[in-house]
Amino acid sequence: MMVWIFVEGESDKIALNALWSTWKSKLGKAGWGIHLIPLEDKSRFFRKIGHRAAEKLAHDVSDLVVGLPDLYPNVEYASTEYAHADLAGLRSLQSSLVKKALQDIYSKSDAQAQDVMKRFHPTALKHDLEVLLLAAIDELRQVLGSSEALGKWRHPVEDQNQSNPPKYVVEALFRTKKKRRYRDTTDAKAVLDKVSDIKKLLYNDKTQLECPVFKQTMDWIATKTGVEGY
């Protein structure tokens, strides 16, 4: 049994594999695997998610599929068939693309497609993967070699201003603290490798939920597999 998770890029795959290493081990013992598949970028994600997700859902009635693109930026898609103004719109768009592929490619009736879609979870990384780095503040400090407060940003971190998204914040921190460019394929992994308790990433020291959408994704997988992630 497999959980297939479609993301935008290689850095997402690498970083999430690092963060979920313990959970993946627990899932493995229960007979489940998690496999992250990068679709190169957001535009290609939209062009591919329908048939790629439908293929996995149709191949094995036990498998689960998660669509996990970035919500922002989204302005450039406003006048296209992939328009989405918010998280609800992005979820609806993914669902429609996958359902259409199930009907067109695998000849599923509307009722059959609806039933299969119960194993598909359309969601998003709000902004980009770096939102998780801002949530993992202690681990980020360790990688930066800093004990300072690092700066101010919105809480929950998933609500960070779109004009100054988490990736911009992280890039600025690396320029200031490490005196070098931030490298998403290695630095994100370095931070998330250090997270020993995912619950501390989801909630801050004041027990405020920092990553509600990301938590919902983990909770959906946990409910379907019976294996808790934190």
Supply Rg.
Answer: 18 Å
Helix/strand-derived category reads: alpha/beta
Q: Could you give a short account of the major beta sheet?
A: 4 strands, parallel
Q: Let me know the number of strands.
A: 4
End-to-end C-alpha gap: 21 Å
Describe the structure.
With 230 residues, this protein is an alpha/beta fold. 51% of the residues lie in helices and 9% in strands. The protein is built from eleven helices and four strands. It has helices at residues 10-19, 21-29, 42-59, 87-106, 110-116, 131-135, 137-144, 166-178, 184-192, 198-202, 212-225, and strands spanning 2-7, 33-38, 64-68, 120-122. Strands 2-1-3-4 form a four-stranded parallel β-sheet, sandwiched between helices. Helix 1 (10-19) packs parallel to helix 9 (184-192), helix 3 (42-59) crosses helix 4 and helix 7 packs across helix 9 (184-192). It starts with a strand and ends in a 5-residue tail after the last helix. 40% of the residues are buried. The model has no long low-confidence stretch (mean pLDDT 95).
